[in-house]
Structure formats: C-alpha cells, structure tokens
Amino acid sequence: MLVEQAAAMSALGAPRYSVLVRFGLEEPVRAWAGIGDLEIPADDVETEGGTFQGVGILGNVPALRQLIGGAAERLEFSLTVPSGEIFALADDEAASVRAAPVDVGVIFFDEDWQQSAVAWLWNGTADVPSVSRTANGLSVTRTVRISAGSAFTDRTRPQHTYFTNADQKRRSPTDDFCKRVDLYSVNSTVKFPN
Amino acid sequence: MTGGQSVGGIVRSTRLDGGGLWVIEQEFFVHSRAQVKAIRAIDAGLDGGSSEIVVRVYETPFMPTGADASTVPFSDDSTFSDGTEFASVPVGATLTASAALRATTLSLTMIVGALEGGERFSIDHATKGKRLYTISRVDGDDITIRPPLREAVASGTDLDFTQPGCVCRLSNPDDFLGALDLNKNLIATAVWIESF
C-alpha cells in the first residue's frame, strides 16, 4: 500500500506527507508532526481511531532504520510539553509507559490536503520516560523524552567470560592452558559485578 | 523542507506540516493616554504570550464584492430619533453542508456579495474558537479553502467575512511594546502565532 501511495504522491511533484507517533498507553498519546488536529480512523494499529495532536507536541522523530545485520536500535522521541497531560506521562504514569507499544507511521495528503490511510512503518516498545527542562533566557522548554526499542532491543549486557584458570578448569578439568593467568596483572581489569 | 538535491541539481520540496498555521504581524501606532493604557492592559493580559487572544485582521477592502459593513434602518425604513440606523452585522455566508475536520472544500450560500477567491473569513468553532481561512478557489457554491478546517462544522454555520479573526498567542512578548516618547506615543509591534 505504501508503495502505491508514495508513487502517487511523488507524481504530484511536491509530495505532502507527515509523520505520526502513537504511544499505546491506557490512554493513548497520539501526536503528529503537522499542525492542528488530525482524525485517524480505526485501523490495525490505531484500533479505536483517534485524534492526533499537532503543533508543538512532537519535538522530533528520530531517523528510523531497518535492522539488517546491525545493532538493534533504540529511538528517543521527544515531546515538548504544552499541557499537563504529557507531563503527567513522565510523572504520574511513568510506570505505565514502560513496555507500552510505540508505533510510527507516515500519512500522505493529496493536493487538497485530504488524507489517505496511515502506513505504519515501525513499532517498538517504550522504555522509561525522562523529563528535562531547559531555560533559554526567559523562555522555558519542558521536554519529555521517551526511549523506545524495537523487538530486537533489550537491556542485557554481554556476558563476560574470563580466561582464568578456575574458569578453564571448569570447562576442561585437565587443561592447564590458563594456569599462569593469575600472574598476569598488567593492563588487566576484571569487571565486577558481571 | 526539501527532499534533498538530485544529481541534476533540482530540489524537490516536501511539506510535512499538514497545511500550515497563521502567523500575523501587526504594527500599531499608539498615541493617546487612553490608547497607551489600553495597550498596556492588553499586554498584561497576554501574560507574555501564554494567553490566547482573538486577533482581528483588516479585511474590509477585500470583503466579498458588494458586501459592506453598512447600517440598516427599521423594516419600515424609519431610523432612530437621532437619525442613526442599526449597525448591520452582515455575516457574509452560511454553510449549506456540514464539513469534517481538515476539510478543504465547503459548500455555502452567500447572504450578500459575490466571491472571487482570495477573500478571508473566519468561522467561530465550538471548541477551537475563531479561526481564519483564505479562499483559494471558487466553483459555484463550493469553495476551496486553506488551511484545512481546524474543527468539524455543521451545516448552517456562519462564515464571517466582515470581521475575521484568529485565536492567537503573542510570539514576541519582549518586543511587543516600543519605547514611550514624550508625547505619549509608542509603537506596538506584534507577531501573533495561531494558538492550539
């Protein structure tokens, strides 16, 4: 579907499209990169249909990449805060944000700004939100950042293995290959806890 | 926003904002005790750009042809005892069909005057307040407008061509009021930005 839409819009010369982000919380947070409200009918992702809020809500949408034999990505969405609602996200409802589904889609408009169906491009899982406040002269901007990972992202760290004599003896009781490792202390730091 | 330059050097532009928003720049020459006090009161009420205000735009010369904000007498052509008439409030047009949020085509019937395109009008929305629109095309009783409708409207809604305005916030609170000179004159420069 996306391919046909993109081709049709591309034929217009100056394509018009925008980006939507949906955080599937109990009370979903819907934002898009345009201005004003945008009504989206129910579809596979936006199961109830809803109004996406425009201007000033969505700070930026990070670049999306498809995972092809690379490191799993983690995206950070920033929502500037004109209202208490989104602020409450990071404060009162911080626990509910964790593991909430995050969807990013693109929507195309025709030359009369009439929308087509949303093509949802990316989905992931929200992680902990954080709040920041930057003051620049007299103006203060409050931003809520929500980090999201794809299905391939997790929080584990790689398991460390050490070539110590004890480790090696556990694997092969008669192998003395690492016998003298204990004596090696220059340029060696053992991370603890593992 | 552009999609980047192609090898041939042609830049293709892309719009991501979904129709744009109003930015209104106005300059007022304020020149009496009453006016200075009024503009100060407005400035205080704007709370440094955090309060909303309906900003009127001067559209009188561009109203639909034949419409004007004139006065009307009583139905028997009599006037008030001092010779004045009612100040008429010509709305301009009413919608003949409801329109959805973000619609850009409206069907209307003109009360007075004829449309040519390029006129500006406002609609007083139920929750979004007064919003400003420009007519880009006229096709019989249908008009095409920009920006897309901020809120759904019902059939019979008035389109106000005579005193259009838009709910805005002040975006330059630091530079709004100029210095007051010895003759109690000052120049107020306002940059309004449509509020949501």
How would you explain this protein's 3D organization?
The complex is a heterodimer of chains A (194) and B (196). Chain A is an alpha+beta fold and 194 residues long. Helices cover 14% and strands 34% of the residues of chain A. Chain A has a seven-stranded antiparallel beta sheet with strand order 2-1-7-8-9-6-5. In chain A, strands 3-4 form a two-stranded antiparallel sheet. In chain A, a hairpin with a 2-residue loop joins β8 and β9. The longest helix of chain A is centred in the first third of the chain and has 9 residues. Chain A is elongated and about 75 Å long. The model of chain A has no long low-confidence stretch (mean pLDDT 76). By secondary structure, chain B is mainly beta. Chain B folds into two domains: 56 residues, no CATH class; 93 residues, Beta Barrel (Elongation Factor Tu (Ef-tu), domain 3), CATH 2.40.30. Helices cover 7% and strands 37% of the residues of chain B. A six-stranded antiparallel beta sheet of chain B has the order 9-10-11-8-7-12, with no helix packed on it. Chain B starts with a strand and ends with a strand. The model of chain B has no long low-confidence stretch (mean pLDDT 84). Classes of the chains: A alpha+beta (194), B mainly beta (196). At the A-B interface, β1 of A face loops of B.
Characteristic key phrases:
heterodimer; A: 194 residues; alpha+beta; 2 domains; seven-stranded antiparallel β-sheet; 4 helices; 9 strands; 14% helix; elongated; B: 196 residues; mainly beta; Elongation Factor Tu (Ef-tu), domain 3; six-stranded antiparallel β-sheet; 1 helix; 37% strand
